[in-house]
Amino acid sequence: MKVFYQITYPNVHNQHLEIVSNYPKEIMLIFPRRLQQKKLMLRLVSRFSKVSLGTYDGLQKVDLFHLVDTLGYKTRVPWITEFGDIGALMRYDERKIHSRLFKYVFRKTLQQPSFIKFVPKSKIVSKPLINHKLVSEDRIEVVYPAIVPNLKKQHENKDEVNLIFNIGNHPYFVWKGGRELIATFRKLKKEYPKITLTIVGIVPSDIKREDGLILTQKIPREILIEKFYPEADIMVHPTHMDSFGYVLLEAKAFGLPIISTSQYAIPEIVEHNKQGFLIQDIQKTWYDEQVIGIYGYQKWKEPIFLPGELERLKKELYSALSILIEDHSLRQKFGEKNYKDICEGKFSFKHRNKQILKIYKTASNFI
Predict the structure, then answer these.
(1) What is the pLDDT of residues 260-275, one digit of tens each?
(2) In a 10 Å sphere around its CB, with 0-12 CB exposed, 13-18 middle and 19+ buried, how is residue 65 labelled?
(3) How far apart, in whole angstroms, are the C-alpha atoms of residue 275 and residue 252?
(4) Helices H, strands E: what count in the chain?
(5) pLDDT digit string, tens, across residues 2-29
(6) Rounded CA gap, 260 and 144, in Å?
(7) Count of structural domains within the chain
(8) Comparing C-alpha atoms, which of 292, 67, 350, 29 is closest to residue 55?
(9) In terms of DSSP H, where are the helices of the chain?
């Protein structure tokens, strides 16, 4: 079966590179070098409705279009759409989900006989589509991303415990809970002098190196995988903003215990009290439909908390970190369950590829 897979090089997320490198052997993937939408009507409809549309007929003779964050516009070839962020389907203007024009174009596009399925990367990401009656539940099938397991961490009973906080190469330090984490780390450092915190990614100019605090700025992913993850003992990700949280899969692939928040899809990735600790995040503006409907998330400069909630969050973060710093056997237990999830669970390639082949078979029946 020949499948057009809509990722464009060289700007491809690491998760897509890993997925296509471990695809089912029965499938021949075709990749575009660069996509150019030349149809005037397509551009106009997409611009004014804010529905993310694409048309790919005539590019190659294929059996299926596996689109990413895009709907097929007047497409004769069967197509599915994989997405991890509801905003991507509406050109990152989430307020448009309330627009009549958006809903009309969206539903009209899905009425094409060539539409097969939506393939969200988490259960929660498809909820707005269902709640607004844009697509029926039987046309949705969740397929989680997968990642290759790395060398599993062996957690030793030691005083030197290394924390890692990976915000990536984006200026999201505040939204990812960076300031709360540093404040908590400084407090922990007084009780556990030998702990370290490595922050991978861009930090504000006022954040400087200090005792136990390691700042890497931008580093190649190869160095992250070869050096920093193997040396880490705990992944800390106290985020207030995430669509999926691919860095958590990377941590699981090394058998690391995880401390994060209940933000968006994270509870589907990390099982509380079994694979790590999840802190209840009251700050919900990132994907809260009522707030987005009024303001749009891009207007928010930083997270907004109810009185007392920020202190409560830092207190729970301190407690969760203290438990794992002191209990190496619990770190090992959580880490092993995370590692198993990657080797044979819902984030394994065995599980993902089985689902993908099943969906592709549905499309081949259409042909």
Answers:
(1) 999 889 999 999 999 9
(2) buried
(3) 9
(4) 13, 13
(5) 998 887 555 567 778 889 899 999 999 8
(6) 19
(7) 2
(8) 67
(9) 14-21, 40-49, 100-110, 127-131, 178-191, 221-223, 229-231, 246-253, 266-269, 289-294, 309-326, 328-344, 349-366
Pick the closest to residue 76 from 136, 116, 105, 37 (CA basis): 116
Same domain, 77 and 46: yes
Query: Is residue 279 within a helix (H) or strand (E), and if so which, with residue range?
Result: strand 276-279
Q: What is the CATH number of the domain that holds 37?
A: 3.40.50
Q: What spatial distance separates the first Cα and last Cα of the chain, rounded to whole Å?
A: 11
Only one residue has tokens 């330090």, namely: 173
Specify the residue for token string 């369950």.
Answer: 337
Sequence-ordered list of residues with C-beta below 8 angstroms from that of 134, at least 6 positions apart, any chain? 103, 106, 107, 110, 128
Q: Tokens 């290394």: give the residue.
A: 162
In a domain, 15, yes or no: yes
Position 11 in a domain: yes
Question: Among 224, 219, 265, which Cα is nearest to 241's?
Answer: 265
pLDDT band at 197 (very low <50, low <70, confident <90, very high): very high
At 4, which helix (H) or strand (E)? strand 2-5
- Pick from 2-11, 172-181, 326-335: least confident: 2-11
Residues 198 and 237 reside in one and the same domain: yes
Total residues found in the chain within this entry: 367
Q: Identify the bridge partners of residue 217 per DSSP, sorted by sequence position.
A: 200, 201
Whole-number Å distance between alpha carbons of 233 and 216: 17
* Domain with 71 in it: 2-146+349-366
Tell me the whole-structure pTM to 2 decimals.
0.88
Of the candidates 313, 15, 323, the residue with the CA atom closest to the CA atom of residue 178: 313
Q: Is residue 155, in this structure, part of any structural domain at all?
A: no
Angstrom distance (rounded) from CA 276 to CA 85: 24
Residue-wise pLDDT tens digits, 337-364? 999 999 999 999 999 999 999 999 888 7
**What is d(CA 321, CA 315) in angstroms, rounded to the nearest whole number?**
10
CB 144 within 8 Å of CB 18 = no
Answer whether residue 157 is part of any domain. Answer: no
Same domain for 268 and 357?
Answer: no
Instruction: Tell me: pLDDT of 293 over 50.
Output: no
One domain for residues 112 and 209: no
Q: Structure tokens of 227?
A: 């050096």
